Amino acid sequence: MSATNSLPKVSDNRPSFVRQMKFLFQPIEYVEDFAKTYGDNFSISNFYGSSIVYFSNPQALQQIFTADSSQLSSGGGPKGLRFLLGTNSLIFLDGDRHQRQRQLLTPPFHGDRMRIYGESIREITEHLCDEWQVNKPFKIRDSMQKITISVILRVVFGLDEGQRFDELALLLTSLLEAMSSPLMSSAVIFPFLQKDLGAWSPWGRVVRLKQQVDELIYALIQERRTQSNQNRQDILSLMMSARDQDGQVMSDEELHDELMTLLVAGHETTASALTWAFYWIDCLPQVRDKLQRELSSIGENPDSSVIAKLPYLTAVCQETLRIYPIVMTAFFRVVKSPIEIIGYKLPVKTFIIPSIYLAHHREEVYPQPKQFKPERFLDRQFSPYEYLPFGGGNRRCIGMAFAQYEMKLVLATILSRFQVSRVNKRPVRPVRRGLTVAAPAGMRMVATQTKHQQSS
User: Fold this and answer.
1) CATH homologous superfamily of domain 16-455?
2) Which of 64, 140, 234, 455 stands 20 to 30 A from 164 (CA)?
3) Rounded Cα distance, 449 and 130, in Å
4) How many CB atoms lie within 10 A of CB 423?
5) Considering just the CA atoms, what is the radius of gyration of the chain in Å?
6) What are the tens digits of pLDDT across the range 52-91?
7) DSSP letters of 55-104?
8) What's the confidence (pLDDT) of residue 115?
9) Could you tell me if residue 247 is left (phi over 0), alpha (psi between -120 and 50 degrees) or otherwise beta?
10) Minimal CA–CA distance to 305: which of 108, 148, 452, 117?
11) What predicted TM-score, i.e. pTM, was given to this entire model?
């Protein structure tokens, strides 16, 4: 490709408001329609007049993710999330500060730690299953959110069940639910909508919920600092004991902001991924049967590490995250000095969007990309520039291994006891939920005991 080639520029004469509404309420159609018309890579003027370039070509993504930091800036994140996560969040850091924080946060997510967390994840999931009433419809997303919030509070925050656990769970769930409504989704994407008009206004309610959450988190940090128990294995305690190259620990503000980041990144996204997994497993009986056979082959009460290595379960989780990635794009990059990506010269201040969704639907990489086929992950290995549900480069999600581990353990624990089926068999389309795309929150399912459970 010649470097003189220019990117296809989207010609869109619709009023800006119409385009914004499609971006908010039909996020998949928004990018698919452009890709059908303009191909792999295209340029569009954003709502503020800046040039935004979408890339989904694996070679382009490799160049973006491996580019020198002198050419591309990758900090900043969605400005609308600063209110929720705080300015010290890993998402908003770049350069040396980002590198320092990432090094401090890495140890708790090391593979050796996963075994410690596995039993908690399975125990929490078992407890939720005990609350289900067989053959009585329930909202699957609500159940998955109860699991993921409990995992965060126990494994990350180090809280045991009790009054503070329940209070924080209620407040956090209320805050994230409020932030995920269509109106608040708009406020996250367009920060000028963040107007506090009193306790009864939508944003005012969010502000007050956030204040209550902050008070509880800072109180927890202060309490943990005064404790002498050095053997705690929760992620907060490990974060507090971590030291950077200069021997410095994280400040209270840094701990708070990273806890909020882990909460938002690890709760909503995993709940959405699990909801989609149950949807696809019910849609495709052949997938369900193959998965059940694999789970039956490892006997009762297998070790968590055995579950995590199951090939077909792993493939089901991978395909779930491929077909409808929870976050449709990786972190945007901003051109700091002129750069050439697969022959296209990009000037300073160009916004680069690595499109996860479009990369996951390339026909030459994933034949019949609209079909749910876990077998594709058994047949071949995909490069990190072809398959990237957790982003790429130095911005790849730090909790990737934990999220995949949790997803497998929750699915295996539930499917070993229940068959979970949709009440309404109509196909569903993803909807926007804050900065993510998810299955409709109202999707109802029923749980019936597996034949093994019925006979035992």
Assistant:
1) Cytochrome P450 (1.10.630.10)
2) 140
3) 12
4) 11
5) 22
6) 899 999 999 999 999 988 899 876 666 667 878 888 888 8
7) E--HHHHHHHHT--TTTEE-----GGGHHHH-TTSGGG--HHHHHHHHHH
8) 80
9) left
10) 117
11) 0.92
